[in-house]
Amino acid sequence: MDRRLFTARSASLLTLLTVSTWHQAYALSLADLSNTDATKGLKEALEKGALSAIGILGAENGFLGNDRVRINLPGALNDAANLLRRFGQGGRVDELITAMNRGAEAAVPQAKGLLSNAVQTMSVNDAKGILAGGNTAVTDFFASKTRPALAVTFLPVVTRATEKVGLVDKYNEVAGKAAEVGLLRKEDANIQQYVTGKTLDGLFFMISEEEKKIRQNPVGYGSAILTKVFGALK
Fold first, then answer.
1. Is the pLDDT of residue 13 over 50?
2. Which helix (H) or strand (E) holds 132?
3. Is the CB of residue 132 less than 8 Å from the CB of residue 30?
């Protein structure tokens, strides 16, 4: 046999073997994944999503400069604030809104430890169900595990940031009356509680955005386990 022909055929055979091996390694279904791999992939996804969200939101203007998570006054109070601005009296209102968002930015980094600890609570029996549960199933699972504890952690940080503004007591007084007559939800009638809730909403929203990116393009994260686990969902 001509040596060049033999070499060409050998190269073709090697290519076919390589492609076949790649497909065996990566063209997996969810059923092919071990619970260990599924859990490991979910843990890494959470870690990457959480660290990314904390890095974005915990920086200056992470909340205030981001329209997707910026914390404004709730409902009727926001309408009243807009009216005050029309009459040139919006300075104090803007000071309060800035303090609210600064409180959120200061609180978010405190989430890192709790989110890391929550990773360890995942049961291997939960992993595949969470993987197949939708674009934000990982985030939803960990929100259910950590949100109450994070609220307790965030509240004093938010309180310190907002109490520096003289309007806080006035806000709570007015908001309390508005809630009594149904113009405001009761959970929004205390500024510290309101900002804490919005901080948590913003945090888990940003984690969910990162989770969606991981699910859509796991290869782009340069992680073999993410590629294997989330690639199995394609």
1. no
2. none
3. yes
Residue with tokens 């209102």: 93
User: 227 in the Ramachandran plot: left (φ > 0), alpha (ψ -120 to 50) or beta?
Assistant: alpha
Question: 150-164 b/e with 16+ CB inside 10 Å = b?
Answer: bbebbbebbbebbee
Q: Are 96 and 163 in contact (CB under 8 A)?
A: no
The enclosing H or E element of 63 equals none
The first and second tokens of residue 145, run together, are: 């595990």
Model pLDDT for residues 96-116, shown as the tens digit of each residue: 899 999 999 999 999 999 988
User: What is the SS3 assignment for 153?
Assistant: helix
Q: What are phi and psi of 61, to 5 degrees?
A: 70, 15
Instruction: Tell me what the mean pLDDT of segment 156-161 comes to.
Output: 94
pTM: 0.81
Distance set, CA 223 to CA 127, 140, 214, 227 (Å): 18, 23, 10, 6
